[in-house]
Design a protein that fits this description.
Layout lengths: L6 H8 L1 H4 L32 H7 L3 H14 L5 H28 L15 H43 L3 H6 L1 H13 L5 H21 L4 H24 L6 H17 L8 H46 L8 H20 L5 H50 L5 H17 L5 H25 L1 H25 L6 H14 L5 H21 L4 H19 L3 H29 L5 H38 L1
Helix pairs in contact: 1-5, 4-5, 4-6, 6-9, 10-11, 10-12, 11-12, 12-14, 13-14, 14-15, 14-16, 17-18, 17-19, 20-22, 21-22
């Protein structure tokens, strides 16, 4: 997906080298207060989550993350585990975002899905090398620490055993008070032990110390002095805990409180009658810090819930996009820009709750991936269609170029006009070929038609002159149509003879001129009571006489020819009538076809009737000659 935050899935998986390593921070010895002091549930809460947002705001680029890791590696320090985890997450967030951006650019450029190979990240080797240095150092420190914990455990067990011996009798307690104090000081100086033994050790220590003090009879002044020093220490710890309430840095205050609790546990008891009051004050001060700490993380959780709501809304917007109606590049680019806007907005939103963070990111990523997969498929299909159209148009260009020198003006002109129609029906071709193909195609067509224009200029001039003559004949027929006289028919026949002698007119005017000419002739003949069919029959009778003069047996041949024509027309009429019976007249196309065929049948019947009269005329002529 384009420039999308990738920390939440991939980076978390890839950060296992830090999160899963067996290196841990030095353990803080877990102890409890003397049994006489009430236990408080969750008196010191541990930070449940690192402050991720603070680290995110500091490191804005992958190079800054690498520089920080190298700085830690070169410092000789072990580094903070939380910071190292977040640095690793951020590195792979930036890394994966770059890879995803390159992948999207590859798809938009027409690349095939599944064949993308990301470039090697030049910063990754340096990052891995620095992290490995830190891991090796932390492993060495952890090994040393574990050995030290075992040694500390052994010594504390020895101290406990000796204190228990001192608390066995009042004589031992009074005689060895100085040794007891030395053992207490040594106990405080010994720090970390294995975590699983810390609570048990501390409880036993508190128990044996209290037993010792209960048996101590030697000098109440010494015991009271010890209680006094412990009280001073605990009152100081109470004041320091109360002062932490003014610290604006909640996390820092909480961590300092843990240190105070540790010192409290290492401080001996106070006088029995004030133990509960002293503990209550320290507990009250601790509760204030704990509540602030809890409120701090409650606010983080509230922000995370709000971020989850915002990210869910973005997922719903993303999933609501309908790609079914996207038919053009502009349509897809429009939705692509909207998705990029959603991705940019996603990056401005912080983390969602940990248990939902990966799931909501995966939902958003899958939505983006699904869109870009569909977009890639669309562009692939368009590319195939463009290439198909390219092949078709190349073929048309080659045909046009092969005909551009032809001098068969009419036939070649019709072919080129048909090629131009085909060109319009073919869709787009790749842009880089479009203009060149169009120029070649139009150049070939223009070359032919310009040559035909020059070659047929004389013919067109003659056709224009013929058109003027026929227009003149039409004007004369119009005048005759308004004239009354005996010689009108003869004048019409003369004009008809002239019409037949005039040559071709421009093709586009031919039909119009003839229809007007034919209508005027029919109008004149109708006005004088002579139908066109009758005129044709009269002319036929006149021609019979001349045929008899030229050849006596020509009438018999003529009659046989007309009889065959008569039978052929009858068969043709029957065929048309049968076909009309099969046509569906319920549609517009069917109606028009039936109407055309009925007109054809009507015309054939008129011709058949005229032919029958001609046959009778031949029979009459042959009878009169006999």
């Amino acid at each position: 997906m384009d420039s999308l935050e990738t920390n939440e899935t991939t980076a978390l998986e890839q950060s296992s080298e830090i999160t899963n390593e067996q290196v841990s921070e030095p353990e803080v010895e877990q102890v409890v207060e003397p049994a006489t002091e009430p236990e408080v549930e969750n008196e010191v809460e541990e930070a449940s989550e690192p402050e991720q947002e603070i680290v995110q705001q500091i490191f804005k680029t992958k190079e800054e993350v690498v520089a920080r890791v190298q700085e830690i590696a070169q410092s000789g320090e072990a580094g903070d585990k939380t910071e190292l985890n977040l640095l690793k997450q951020l590195f792979y967030k930036f890394h994966n975002a770059e890879v995803q951006e390159a992948y999207n650019a590859y798809l938009e450029a027409g690349g095939e899905e599944g064949k993308f190979t990301p470039e090697i990240d030049a910063a990754e080797p340096a990052f891995r090398e620095a992290m490995q240095t830190i891991r090796d150092r932390r492993a060495a420190i952890q090994e040393t620490l574990e050995k030290q914990k075992q040694d500390n455990l052994k010594r504390k067990l020895e101290i406990l055993e000796r204190i228990q011996q001192l608390a066995s009798t009042p004589e031992e307690a009074n005689k060895n008070f100085d040794e007891f104090k030395a053992l207490q000081n040594e106990w405080k100086e010994i720090k970390a032990v294995p975590a699983e033994r810390a609570t048990e050790l501390w409880k036993n220590y508190q128990l044996y110390v209290e037993q010792y003090y209960d048996l101590l009879k030697l000098g109440h002044e010494l015991r009271d002095y010890d209680f006094k020093k412990n009280l001073e220490t605990k009152m100081r710890l109470i004041q320091q805990a109360e002062a932490l309430a003014e610290n604006p840095d909640v996390l820092q205050a909480f961590n300092q409180l843990q240190t105070l609790h540790q010192e409290w546990k290492e401080t001996g008891p106070v006088a029995k009658e004030i133990r509960e009051d002293v503990w209550a004050k320290f507990k009250e001060a601790s509760t204030v810090i704990n509540k602030k700490h809890q409120a701090y993380f409650d606010a983080i959780k509230a922000r995370e819930e709000e971020n989850l709501t915002k990210k869910t809304a973005l997922c719903e917007q993303l999933e609501a996009f309908d790609t079914e109606g996207l038919k053009s590049f502009a349509d897809w680019d429009g939705i692509t820009q909207k998705i990029k806007d959603l991705q940019a907005e996603w990056k401005t939103i912080g983390f969602a709750p940990q248990k939902m963070n990966t799931a909501i990111f995966e939902r958003f990523r899958q939505g983006c991936d699904a869109f870009f997969e569909k977009k890639n498929a669309f562009f692939k299909n368009v590319k195939e269609e463009l290439n198909t159209n390219l092949a078709k148009k190349k073929e048309l260009v080659e045909k046009a170029e092969s005909l551009m020198e032809s001098t068969d003006w009419r036939s070649t002109g019709d072919i080129l006009i048909n090629l131009q129609k085909q060109w319009k029906e073919i869709g787009n071709v790749p842009r880089k070929y479009s203009e060149d193909l169009w120029k070649r195609f139009t150049a070939a067509c223009d070359h032919f038609f310009e040559a035909r224009q020059v070659a047929t200029a004389d013919v067109r001039n003659e056709e224009k002159a013929n058109k003027e003559q026929k227009l003149g004949i039409i004007e004369q027929l119009k005048q005759l149509a308004e004239t009354q006289g005996e010689n009108v028919i003869s004048q019409v026949k003369e004009l008809q003879q002239k019409w037949s002698e005039v040559g071709h007119v421009p093709f586009r005017d031919k039909e119009t001129l003839y229809k007007e000419y034919r209508a005027l002739c029919d109008k004149i003949y109708d006005a004088y009571g002579v139908s066109q069919a009758q005129r044709r029959l009269n002319n036929f009778r006149k021609n019979l006489a001349s045929k008899m003069e030229n050849a006596g047996n020509s009438l018999d041949n003529e009659r046989q020819r007309m009889q065959k024509a008569y039978e052929r027309m009858l068969a043709e009429i029957k065929t048309y009538e049968n076909n009309i019976g099969f046509l569906n007249a319920g549609s517009k196309k069917g109606n028009s076809l039936v109407e055309a065929m009925n007109k054809k049948v009507e015309k054939l019947r008129d011709e058949l009737n005229l032919l029958a009269q001609k046959i009778r005329a031949v029979d009459e002529q042959m009878t009169s000659e006999e």
